[in-house]
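Record 1 of the preview.
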Amino acid sequence: MWLLIIVSFCFSRTIPAGEPLPSEKNKSDIVFFESRLAYPEPDFFLSGSSSELKGFYFGVGFRNVSLIVSDDVTISNSDGTANGIGTNLGYFWEEQALEYERQISIIDHTDSVSYKTQTGEKLEIIQNNFWYIIYPKISMKFYLHYGAGIQFTKTRFASVDSIKSYEDEIAFGAETGISFFLMSNLKLLYRFSAGRKIPFLETSNSSTFLKQSLLHTIFLNYYIPL
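->
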């Protein structure tokens, strides 16, 4: 009898005090596995269903301006604030946008510029641009953008106060650049845009005041998701 008890005791399974029970070990493995799971990105950055893909944005921009006016004279100004300011308002959805952009530029030139019967050294240009833009996504916060549109321009010598002194012209525009979301509602956008008067709208007797415009603009936009 005692021999059977001793043999049974020797071959029985012992569990060290420091080793967890099987049920406790399984629970700890589950907790560890859950802690290693990658949590999904915020809805703002998810493609296809995020609020980022639909909403309005607006802001102001500071520019580097280069213009080609009558007689192929090039006028440029790199002072982003002294030569005027740009504003924009757009609607963004599914990596594309419709945008209205207004650029007002007042630029001095070292030499006199002539157009028809007028002469001056300071020009005022108002551009109302309507863009259709594609926004391919690079990463979570970076987007490329490129697009095309129509530019309605008003040009005059700044010394003339009459509204009738503006020369109205229509140009074709193209733009490209990059945008970066600083926060969920704040976007930094760089744009290079070029505009040139549409040739087939010109007549043999017409003259062009603003032939071409090149602008480098940095916009700070506030974004309102829908």
